[in-house]
Amino acid sequence: MSAETGIDKGRSAFREHRWGDASRSYAEADRHGGLPAADLERLGTSGILTGDIVAGLETLTRAHEEYLVIGDVESAARCAGWMGMHLMFMGERVRAGGWFARGRRLADELAEPGAVQGLLLLPDGLGKLYGGDPAGALEVFSRVAGYGQLFHDKDLSALGLLGTGQATLMLGHPDKGLAMFDEAMVAVTAGEVSPVPSGIIYCAVIGNCHLAFDLARALAWTTALDRWCSERPDMVPFSGQCQAHRAELYRLHGAWAEALEAAAVAQGYSTRGDPQALYGGYYQQGEIQRLTGNLAGAEASYRQAAESGYEPQPGLALLCLARGEVQHAQSMIRRAIGVADVATRRHLLPALVEIELAATAPEAARRGADELGAFARECPMPMVRALAGQADGGVLLAEDDPVGASQALRQAWKLWLELGVPYEAARCRVLIGCACRNLGDEPSALMDFEAAHREFLELGAAPAAAWTGSLLREAQGNSGGADGPLTPREAEVLRLVASGMGNRAIAAELYLSEKTVARHLSNIFLKLGLPSRSAATSYAYEHGIVS
Question: Where is the domain boundary, 235, 252, 273?
């Protein structure tokens, strides 16, 4: 294949988003006579998009140098800017800073300003955005968007709009910020934006929708991102982040096995060219492990997530709470929320209320619930209203107002059901049962506890099932039930355990496999909130299951 043929094939493949084919055709052409600067830039970009970041950066460096040779200073500066951006996403801030400095020096040499000046403002805007200065970031990104408009650069206009939306969200104006995200996504979904900025915008918009508790938008844009990635099967960057977003949605909607699978895929992509997937892949895995009772695994996952540079909160604080380290959890969440921007603070408030209640600090919990309530009045999206109602109901219970608690919790429960978030709906149901109990309505309390318990068992939420199991034992004790929530077969297994028989002997006695006996025993521990066979034996004697 001649160099000219390879270049033509490479350009065609690049236009059609077949970056693996583009890389191969361009590489072949490069071996047979070299590539022009613009095609070297496309080859480097193709390498990065297929996960070969080192080779891609080396080729972009060649493109930068070739632009300088031919006197195209603006394109050389643009190449330097994108080199800096790629290195920044990889966490190589020193090298990134060097390329940004070179890009700015070259841009200063231009006789007339151009779009590249706007591109080279992006690192300053990102620094302010994640450095606690959203007002400064808003000013910088507004200038970026202005350069895009002035020079008709669709990439720059969309990235500027993304940044202004993020800064606006962090300043506490979610409606305005989300509207800006929608506008940026119009350009992306219309195909007006090039591949790398498109991926950046997709992933940032979805992450910020979750931060703003806009579950409907997060679902819609994740579906769009999933489709976009599927149409580009050899793309590595952004594909991992897509899987991390999928994992979060699966987790919320109760599909925990699927969430773990998506998180594992995201982790794989994070080592193959999508380092931004590291946090989401491990954080979402940690959340499932925490909720299912694998606390050691959750801690390891949160530590991996922290390697990204982002703090794994509120998961880490809630993990401490699950371990019974209440004061540690309280100190951790208070510190995290004290240094957070407005949007992140709101994201941490539900965990703060839960932890403060566990630490018997009702006044602090009330302040957190009231702040969530004010946010819900300002931004009445279903998920915000559900979180606010759940927090308010929990605090009202602690304040000995079961009537008010029941009203707030039932509204929150209905919202969680409408959103399709079963774990939080079940948690609300337990608290509703507690309110009924405080009002002396034991039959209704039993009904709520049983419904929540079934949901927790179906999800595999062992700690929550154990908690609800203990409440069920109290309710059934009051109503006179002996076997409690156990099925007849489980009660029979428990009787044999209490008689001192091991799993093999029980299996022979009941004509079951040892694996089936072990599963029954696991269900017994979950349902009754018991830690061991000896505890199960004590329970059996105390509740008259054996005499």
Answer: 235
Q: Which two tokens stand for residue 155?
A: 């990439």
pLDDT at 120 over 90: yes
Same domain, 466 and 492: no
What angle is formed at CA 56 by the lines to CA 144 and CA 152, rounded to 5 degrees?
A: 25
In a domain, 246, yes or no: no
Question: Cβ contacts of residue 412 below 8 Å, gap of 6+?
Answer: 385, 386, 387, 388, 389, 390, 393, 428
Same domain, 218 and 147: yes
pLDDT of amino acid 486:
80
User: Which structural domain range is residue 386 located in?
Assistant: 361-470
Give the contacts of 148 (CB within 8 A, at least 6 positions apart): 115, 118, 154, 155, 156, 157, 158, 159, 160
Domain count, the chain: 3
Report residue 55 as tokens: 């080779």
Note the helical H segments in 420-461. 422-438, 442-459
CA 63 – CA 350 distance, rounded (Å): 50
According to DSSP, residue 193 is labeled S
Q: Which residue pairs from 3-7 have beta carbons closer than 8 angstroms and sit at least 24 positions apart in sequence?
A: 3/29, 3/30, 3/32, 3/33, 3/34, 3/35, 4/29, 5/29, 6/30, 6/32, 7/35, 7/36, 7/39
Looking from the CA of 349 toward its CB, the CA atoms found within 13 Å total 31
User: pLDDT tens digit string along 360-389?
Assistant: 999 999 999 999 999 999 989 999 999 999
Q: Is residue 271 part of a domain?
A: no
Question: Residue 15: exposed, middle, or buried by beta-carbon count in 10 A (0-12, 13-18, 19+)?
Answer: exposed
Closest Cα partner for 470 from 485, 455, 489?
485
Provide the CATH number for the domain around residue 521: 1.10.10.10
pTM value is: 0.84
Residue 371 lies in a domain: yes
Closest CA to 180 of 161, 208, 203, 154: 161
**Alpha carbon 296 to chain centroid, angstroms:** 20
Residue 133 has pLDDT above 50, yes or no: yes
**What does the alpha-carbon distance between residue 453 and residue 430 come to, in Å, rounded to a whole number?**
8
Mean pLDDT, rounded, for 30-45: 93
How is residue 45 written in tokens? 């970009």
- Our CA dihedral for 465, 470, 471, 474, rounded to 10 degrees, sits at 150
Token duo for residue 372 = 């969530």
Give CA–CA dist 214/500, Å, rounded.
Answer: 53
What does the pLDDT look like over 470-485, one tens digit per residue? Answer: 888 776 665 445 556 7
Q: How far apart are CA 540 and CA 547, in angstroms?
A: 9
Residue carrying the six token digits 């506890």:
449
Mean model confidence pLDDT for the chain: 92
Distance (Å, whole) CA 340 – CA 152: 36
Q: Are residues 418 and 509 in the same domain?
A: no
111 within some domain? no
